[in-house]
# Entry
Amino acid sequence: MPSLKEVKSRIQSVTSTQQITKAMKMVAAAKLRRAQDNITQMRPYAGKLASLLQNLSSQSEGESAGYSEVRPVENVLIIAVTSDKGLCGAFNSNVFKQVNKHIQDNYQAQFDAGKVTILPIGKKALDYFTKRSYRLEGDFWNMFTPVSFERSLKASEFAMKGFLDGKYDHVDLIYNEFKNVATQIMRVEQFLPIAPPDEVTNGTFEVDYIFQPSKDEIVEELIPKSLKIQVYKAILDSNAAEHGARMTAMDQATENAGELLKELKLTYNRTRQAAITKEILEIVAGAEALG
# Structure
């Protein structure tokens, strides 16, 4: 049985940890509210823009048509979005598992040939893929201090230029989508080439737009902007999902600490009672010996 001093020390340690997890939960809740507002406001705009992007890409010509060019997949870029910090449950490890599975299922031959490149967003992704000797483009990981459209532009423009220049034949985006505080949905999206809309693919429907001032001018402006918004939305989604995951993880950690404290206090009382009983027995035995 542990000594009273050892049990008391563990109780103090768990109590301190519980106070930290409570504080982290409160901080995550405050950040989550702002992040949730940002992604909730962005989704309708990004969704409509993505729909326009798919329809317009099939009608575009010139440089913007290059974003829709389908070619044999030899060089691949995967944009993996994680967080800068840990203590958020399986949030980051789910992204790592999905990236590895995605490569294994779709790009194993390219990976074996050294033609799969990871563009990590978030320090956790940078650390993970660096330690495992993946081929990296590691200049764009710092996106969350703070989250802004200007910061995300660097990553999206790099991927877009790489695709147009033929450096990459396929670009995918992997991130956690925010659903609610307790749920994050793993998303794997084709970023480039732009996928045609299902209606056009099935040959059943195509939107006929009226262009003003001119079709070429609008298409040249709208397609690159929509692609940049797609990356920014993924970062906003991941940011909100991270705070939700951390809030849930810290809440669970606080509850676990509470359960552990109950057990430790029970052990402390039993140990203390045993020590008192032992002392009483020693006193009685001493008194009998004197008598």
Observations:
- Residues 20-250 form a domain with the Pyruvate Kinase; Chain: A, domain 1 fold (CATH 3.40.1380.10).
